Amino acid sequence: MLAKRIIPCLDVDKGRVVKGINFVNIRDAGDPVEAAFLYNKEGADELVFLDITASSDYRETMVEVVKKTAEVAFMPLTVGGGVRNLSDIERLLKAGADRVSINTAAVNRAKLVKDASLRFGSQCIVVAIDAKRHKAEDRDQKAGARKQNTDLDSGERWEVYIHGGRTPTGIDAVSWAKKMEDYGCGEILLTSMDRDGTKEGYDIELTRAIAEGLNIPVIASGGAGRMEHFYEALTSGKANSVLAASLFHFREMTIIEIKKYLSKKGVIVRL
Amino acid sequence: MITVIDYKMGNIHSVQKALEYVGFQVKVTNSYQEIVNSKGVVLPGVGAFRDAMRNIKELNIDKAIYKVIEEGKPFLGICLGLQLLFSKSYEEGEYQGLDIFKGKVVKFSKSVLIPHIGWNTVVINHQSDRIVSLFKDIPDNSFFYFVHSYFVKPDNENIIATTTNYDLNFTSTVVKDNIVAFQFHPEKSQDFGLKLLENYKNMFFNSL
What CATH number does domain A5-264 carry, 3.40.50.150, 3.30.70.2470, 3.40.50.1000, 3.20.20.70? Predict the structure, then answer.
């Protein structure tokens, strides 16, 4: 039976983990390779590296991080952040990434997702979506600024944001995810911007709205704070995997604790 | 010394590092001569079947693989490297494979999410000496890492060493004489994956 995956995410800036990692036995909390090694030992099912470096001058730095990680952690690695073209993807895959996630570049040029999945295979291409709940009153206020937008005109909606959550696009997250599936991407990494950092739980409605419309797996992200949150996302949210960052970094919960809890509740996990 | 064939299809670095970790000296190459001169060959690969076959033919690697297998040298296929050994794939069309094994490569049905991504259990099919040695110290039903949308259907069921359930029970390991091939990624499957590669080394390379 296929297990649900628990995925720690590491934010990396210029080759260093930004939030730091509070492992007891870590020598250098900012070293992504060391953090990856420890998560590997703790039974993480996969690792996500998110390169949040603003400048492209450091793009090679991330490739080096991936290369070194692949030498010590024999586990699946997904790398995202600043991926703009096919050669960025190729370099990361060659360095040892199993999958590459695309966010802003997919919105700017959707064909990149099509070209990349044809060239490297759908299973290599993840589309990351940062989505924010879009209320009716906001819509009315902003209507002038976004007249071109017909996506977000009725009911409960989530809007896709790019540039690390700074730029709204007017695109509806549910139809965007569907389009990305049609373009060949193999998985959606879905972050709720409303919940990110709140510890109030994943946005279950958002996750389910996206997952139900697709025939590819969805990783839920943003808002994990308690054990139940993982369970909810994997059951009512219909996510295939759950991702968290600070919760694991600051040792508020370990991966193994979460897996034991989920297993008791009847969720298939790899223990 | 073991040779990893680099035919421009994906994650060679991880395969190389995992093999080195279990004690192999690894040479990465696409040269016909180096492949046929090596003691054992690994065909890794992720990506599209059609592109893989095209690259293999362009680089004359198909002939090198036939020669290595015919001479009885150990041959290890991983993921796409398993699928390529079969007669035919139906990935986005219909493409001829290396035809070392009769059978076809087909897609999972729409009743499951595709790709099949993540950790799934590997069930040992029958207890031949070879399979027992390959899975030594690895419990039946252990989890290995998969990432694929297509799977192989061998005509000869005797070559099926393990199966895995997703949509249906599909072939996750093939063992025949000097050929071992996995649908999953041992190089990405943490401790059990490394153990499997170590067992593989002990089976085929200790006497060399």
Answer: 3.20.20.70
The CA distance from B187 to B197, in Å, is 8
Q: Which residue of B has its CA nearest to A6?
A: B118
Total of domains in chain B: 1
Q: How many CA atoms lie within 13 A of A188 on its CB side?
A: 35
Chain CA centroid to CA B109, Å: 22
What is the pTM assigned to this prediction?
0.93
Smallest Cβ–Cβ distance between B188 and the set A67, A76, A120 belongs to: A76
Is B187 among the catalytic positions? yes
Chain segment B74-92, per-residue pLDDT in tens: 999 999 999 999 999 999 8
Expressed as residue numbers, the domain containing B200 is 2-204
> How crowded is the C-beta side of A183, counted as CA atoms within 13 Å?
23
Is the confidence metric ipTM above 0.90 for this complex?
Answer: yes
Residues A81 and A61: beta-carbon distance below 8 Å? no
**A216, A219, A237 from A234: Cα distances, Å:** 14, 9, 6
- How many angstroms separate the CA atoms of A203 and B7, rounded? 43
Where along chain A do its domains lie? 5-264
Nearest one of A44, A78, A81, A42 to A61, comparing CA atoms: A81
Q: Is A11 a catalytic residue?
A: yes
Closest CA to B145 of A125, A260, A2: A2
Minimal CA separation from B156 to chain A, in Å: 25
- A94–B147 C-beta distance less than 8 A: no
Nearest chain A Cα distance for residue B44, angstroms: 12
CATH number of the domain enclosing B168: 3.40.50.880
